[in-house]
Amino acid sequence: MTRLLHRLFAPALRVACLSLGVGALVLVAGCGEKKADRLATQAAARVNKEELTVHQINLVLQHQRNLRPEQADAASRQILEKLIDQELAVQKAVDLKLDRDPRVVQMIEAARREVIARAYVEKVGEAAGKPTPDEIKAYFESKPALFSQRRIYSIQELAIEAKPEQVPVLRDRLAAAKSITEFVDFLKANDYRFAANQAVRAAEQLPLAALDALSRMKDGQATVTQGANGAQVVVLAGSRSQPVTEEQARPAIEQYLLNERKRKLVEDDIKAMRTAAKIEYFGKFAEGPRPGSASSPAASAGAEAASAPELAPADISKGMGLK
């Protein structure tokens, strides 16, 4: 466990930055060269009559994660070939007048709006301040199951089709069973339909609500929860301790808390703008309560809960450098 965590939570606002010396390319041309020469320096290729530039390549490079500096040149060449293919497709589409197709026009406008809105989100998020060491420490201490008491869990799951009145029976039978095999035999004997699954999951690969419950269980214990289509049985077959220190977790926690602040700033700004704006609904959208509206407190609470970020298993595991 030698690598420091560089990400732990799914960033709400992640911006990858990679400088490839575009400015240096322009400066090499010199101040006294002609405009045509400067433009030629920026051009990477010409497809029929259209030029592809270094700026277009760099724009794509900025979104390549985990790209090492020594990989930049090879990546640039690969991106250029993809841009050439794209440009050929664009030229053919224009010849076929597909750029005038109403659906395409709508999609272009939707993409434009998304880019502008994302720029607004990034701009508002710039005002967020970095979390203090005390805030990072407090968060670390508030999540022992995720950090200081982190465990790797071996889990067995059973998804059982059952009516609500059958769930108490299943719970009693599970409690009385000497093993999960005995419980499965009971399900088969009584014609219950079920699906079984087993997996090994690190703490950060579990939803926080499930992690809190699982962290209180001992090896061999099982729980039954009622779901929409029946019952869910979770058996903690085994576990092993693999804690994460505050030093290891600090960079990831700092990034998570910073992203949380950015998200909150944007959320509050949008809420203020909605309050000040004149918003009218028409047709079927004018009827009934709307999510987040004052006429529906429950819907509003649900919308706020849904907007809260959740743990991203893949990001957390990669950030920890753990398996």
Model description:
This protein is an alpha+beta fold. The protein has a domain at 151-241: Chitinase A, domain 3, CATH 3.10.50. 49% of the residues lie in helices and 14% in strands. It has 12 helices and 6 strands. The chain has helices at 22-28, 35-42, 54-61, 72-95, 102-125, 133-142, 167-176, 180-189, 208-215, 246-276, 297-307, 313-320; strands at residues 43-47, 50-53, 151-161, 194-202, 222-226, 230-241. It has a 4-stranded antiparallel β-sheet with strand order 4-3-6-5. Helix 3 crosses helix 4 (72-95), helix 5 packs across helix 10 (246-276) and helix 6 crosses helix 10 (246-276). It is extended, with a radius of gyration of 27 Å. The chain starts with 21 loop residues before the first helix and ends with a helix.
CATH class of the domain at 151-241: Alpha Beta
General form:
extended
Strands side by side in the biggest sheet: 4-3-6-5
Mean pLDDT across all residues, rounded? 80
Distance between the termini: 10 Å
The CATH architecture assignment of the domain at 151-241 turns out to be Roll
Helical fraction equals 40-55%
**In terms of per-residue confidence, which ranges show pLDDT below 50 for 5 or more consecutive residues?**
1-40, 293-323
What gyration radius follows from the Cα positions, in whole Å? 27 Å
Count of beta strands: 6
Determine the strand fraction and express it as a percent band: 5-15%
Q: Based on helices, strands and strand pairing, what is the structural class?
A: alpha+beta
Q: Please tally the helical runs, counting DSSP H or I stretches of 4 or more residues.
A: 12
CATH topology annotation of the domain at 151-241: Chitinase A, domain 3
- The helix/strand series, from N terminus to C terminus, equals HHEEHHHHEHHEHEEHHH
Largest sheet: 4 strands, antiparallel
